[in-house]
């Protein structure tokens, strides 16, 4: 599954690799990769693959799940489609409470003790996923885990998720993307080491322009 999802994301450029000309994230970090999983929604073939994989992962890992909750905003559509496949209720969690109406942060009906799976599009440092899980826990639900489409596998993210007692399962990951990209000629084999160096320490820019 990891390889199939990786191939699909690379094929529609939802994950875009550019080690020779790094992207600059909002944080200022130079990155050889840019991920935009919203593009999955515009590709029926990739969308069907991803959403069915999410649904199958829910059934395999969390058969007791009662509701899917998407992260706002990127996880909402994926949670909705997977919930439709599973014939399950869904909702989503805002990054902050509304300043009008009922001032909701959690949209959709949930109840005390309800078993929830969070659907996230990608995991980097893990902050947004943890924030959503904590909001759901505060509302009295039991969060079984997070299912994400892609994870960078960054040390900081892994440690933060573990500290928050949050289990994450990703459909594919940074290492698989790098390997598939090299095998298909998307990047050169020597670039894998540069990509992994970035993954291991995004603050260290020594991988830029480095020849292996």
Structure characterization notes:
Strands 7-6-5-8-9-10 form a 6-stranded mixed sheet, sandwiched between helices. The protein has a two-stranded antiparallel sheet with strand order 1-4. Strands 2-3 form a two-stranded antiparallel ribbon. The longest helix is centred in the first third of the chain and has 18 residues, at 44-61. Helix 1 runs antiparallel to helix 2. 39% of the residues lie in helices and 22% in strands. The chain is built from 7 helices and 10 strands. Helix 3 (74-86) links the parallel strand 5 (67-71) and strand 6 (90-93). It is an alpha/beta fold and 212 residues long. The protein has helices at 2-11, 44-61, 74-86, 127-138, 155-163, 174-183, 191-200; strands spanning 15-17, 23-24, 30-31, 33-35, 67-71, 90-93, 106-107, 115-123, 142-151, 168-173.
């Amino acid at each position: 599954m990891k390889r199939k999802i990786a191939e699909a994301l690379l094929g529609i450029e939802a994950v875009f690799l550019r080690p020779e000309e790094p992207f600059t994230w909002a944080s200022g970090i130079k990155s050889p990769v840019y991920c935009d999983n919203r593009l999955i929604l515009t590709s029926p073939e990739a969308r069907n693959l991803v959403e069915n994989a999410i649904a199958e992962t829910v059934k395999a890992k969390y058969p007791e799940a009662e509701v899917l909750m998407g992260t706002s905003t990127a996880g909402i559509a994926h949670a909705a489609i997977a919930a439709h496949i599973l014939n399950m209720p869904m909702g989503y969690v805002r990054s902050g409470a509304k300043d009008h109406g009922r001032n909701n942060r959690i949209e959709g009906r949930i109840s005390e003790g309800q078993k929830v799976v969070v659907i996230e599009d990608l995991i980097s440092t893990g902050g947004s996923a943890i924030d959503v899980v904590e909001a759901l826990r505060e509302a009295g639900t039991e969060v079984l885990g997070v299912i994400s489409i892609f994870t960078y596998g960054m040390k900081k993210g892994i440690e933060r998720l573990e500290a928050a007692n949050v289990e994450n399962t990703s459909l594919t990951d940074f290492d698989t993307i790098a390997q598939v990209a090299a095998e298909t000629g998307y990047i050169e084999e020597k670039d894998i080491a540069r990509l992994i160096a970035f993954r291991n320490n995004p603050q260290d820019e020594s991988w830029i322009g480095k020849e292996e």
